[in-house]
Amino acid sequence: MSASGLIVSSDCLRNESRDQTSFGNDHYQIVFQDRDQRRVYGRSYHFFLQDAVDVGEHLVLWDDFVALAAEYRLQMRYKKTFHEVYQEERYGHGGVLLKKMGVSNESGEFLMSDAEWDIARKRCRTYLAR
User: Fold this and answer.
1) Alpha carbon of 54 to those of 27, 37, 49, 67, 123: distances in Å?
2) Distance, CA of 81 to CA of 63 (rounded, Å)
3) Angstrom distance (rounded) from CA 106 to CA 96
4) Which residue, among 114, 82, 101, has the nearest Cα to 9 in the 3D structure?
5) How far apart are CA 93 and CA 66, in angstroms?
6) Tens digits of per-residue pLDDT, 92-113?
7) The model's pTM
8) CA–CA distance from 64 to each of 15, 73, 83 (Å)?
9) Count of Cβ atoms closer than 10 Å to residue 23 Cβ
10) Among 16, 30, 8, which residue's Cα sits nearest to residue 126?
11) Alpha-carbon distance 10 to 57, whole Å?
C-alpha cells in the first residue's frame, strides 16, 4: 500500500503566520482562524487557490503527520518541495505532468509568474508506503 500527494507545508505556514493571521497574493489566500501558535495540530485556516480550491483546512506539523502515518504502518519515503520536484523532473518523467499543469513548456522552460511560484513554494510532494 502507498499514498502520494501534494500538501501545504506546515513549516512554511507557521513561518508566514507568525506575525499575521492572513497572507497571500492575487492567486491564493490563507486565513487563520486564530493566532495560537502553540497548538501542535488542528489550527484551523481557510485556503483559497484561484480557480482550484476554496476550503477549510487544519495545520498538521510534519513530525506529527509522520508519527500518525507510522501508526498505520506507513513510512515516509520522501518529502520534496514543489521547487525540488520542478528542478528534478522538468526534463524527465515528471516533465509531461509539469507541462500539463502549465509550469513549463516543451523545452522545459519555466512558465509560472512570481505570484504563482510563491504559492508553489508552500507545497510539498509526499510519498508514504508500507
Assistant:
1) 12, 23, 6, 28, 16
2) 16
3) 9
4) 82
5) 27
6) 877 888 888 888 888 778 888 8
7) 0.68
8) 17, 14, 23
9) 16
10) 8
11) 11
